[in-house]
Design a protein that fits this description.
This protein has 200 residues and is of the alpha+beta class. Helix content is 28%, strand content 31%. 20% of the residues are buried.
């Protein structure tokens, strides 16, 4: 009897969640590249096609294209196997990761900004020595704040990708996410750069 119950449970789980399991299984670059072109109708060089699986968000893959001066630039994302722009896929992406649970929203908002909105750019998660220089702006760790309106505001410093100039660049980014899982405000508050010493 116990064996029969276990078998029935396994069958029900397999059929009930099969689509989600297939969509969530990690695919190769070749598979994602082909699927991206099929769904969008865009022809993209395989060499310059970028993809990344977020560490803390399930059933999502972000995609982009490579540019020599800035690296990978985000263009959109797959959510449960369907591709769309950040604006189009944000609600579904947050919903399947638990946005309905209000106690999780601050953490999810922070992950979403750091791992999706920033694309291949990196948040500054600790006080780098550049922020200890005499004319450096005040540093803050990445934070998510619940506002009285129910919106969540994320504030963090971002490291700019290396460019052609001999500097380390940063900017302070503010992103507001509404209760219905949409970005209602996104702005850069400050820029900061530190000249690099040229090696002789």
């Amino acid at each position: 009897m116990k064996i029969l119950i276990i078998v029935l449970l396994n069958l029900s789980i397999g059929f009930g969640c099969g689509e989600a399991q297939i969509a969530y299984s990690k695919k190769s670059k070749k598979e994602l590249h082909e699927e991206y072109q099929r769904q969008t109708g865009n022809e993209v060089s395989y060499r310059y096609f970028c993809f990344k699986y977020p560490r803390n968000l399930k059933r999502i893959v972000i995609t982009g294209s490579f540019a020599h001066d800035v690296g990978c630039i985000m263009e959109g994302l797959f959510v449960d196997g369907k591709w769309g722009t950040l604006k189009d896929m944000m609600q579904k992406g947050l919903e399947i990761n638990g946005w309905g649970d209000k106690s999780k929203r601050k953490e999810l908002a922070l992950h979403w900004v750091k791992e999706i909105v920033l694309g291949w750019n990196h948040s500054v998660n600790y006080k780098h020595k550049d922020f200890e220089l005499p004319k450096a702006p005040q540093y803050n760790i990445p934070t998510a704040t619940l506002n009285e309106s129910g919106d969540i505001s994320v504030l963090l410093w971002v490291r700019k990708p290396p460019g052609m100039r001999p500097v380390r660049g940063y900017y302070q980014l503010s992103v507001t996410i509404s209760e219905d899982a949409r970005i209602t405000d996104r702005k850069i508050l400050k820029f900061y750069s530190v000249p690099l010493r040229r090696s002789r």
